[in-house]
Amino acid sequence: MVRAGLTVDRVVVAAADLADEVGFENVTVSALARHFGVKDASLYSHVKSVQDLRVRVALLAGEEMIDRIAGAVAGRAGKDALAAFAGAYREFALERPGRYAATQIQIDQDVVAGTRALRRTAEITYGMLRAYGLDEPDLTDAVRLLRSTFHGFCGLEATGGFGAPRAVQASWDRMVDALHVLLEHWPREEAGDE
Q1: pTM here?
Q2: What is the pLDDT averaged over residues 161-174?
Q3: CB-side exposure of 162: number of CA atoms within 13 Å?
């Protein structure tokens, strides 16, 4: 019998909140069951496994993250859009560490392919970069550059990895400035180069 009040959505949101509190890697069905005051078996009527739960958290987190980014970049272009995108990315990563970690897991492409979050992420990210005049394959390369730069910076910041006396915000701002200059002067790949 399904416990009254438990739904898939409620379970997934609770798991995402738990991830922010204790770390994504510590989200288990048992920990979540304790949160709801139920037996583990009660949750298995809502999620198939801990992997299913984690994938659902990742999809929720991805949607929340792109919603935040979309709101930040709306009506902006060029450097303003890049700075807004970067700032929203960083805020999400630092304010929602468990959810952010969930967005980094590898998910079967068949599961992700039809999701609203993936479509919006592509639309917003590629749309922002097209303002720099980029087309494929340069778009994909630029997306990979931004993601790895933002992820690396946020990961170091979250763990206290920046020890120099310079303000971290000042370094972030200079990094975004440098990325803007790079995107404006992107080395175009010739057709057939791969």
Answers
A1: 0.90
A2: 94
A3: 15
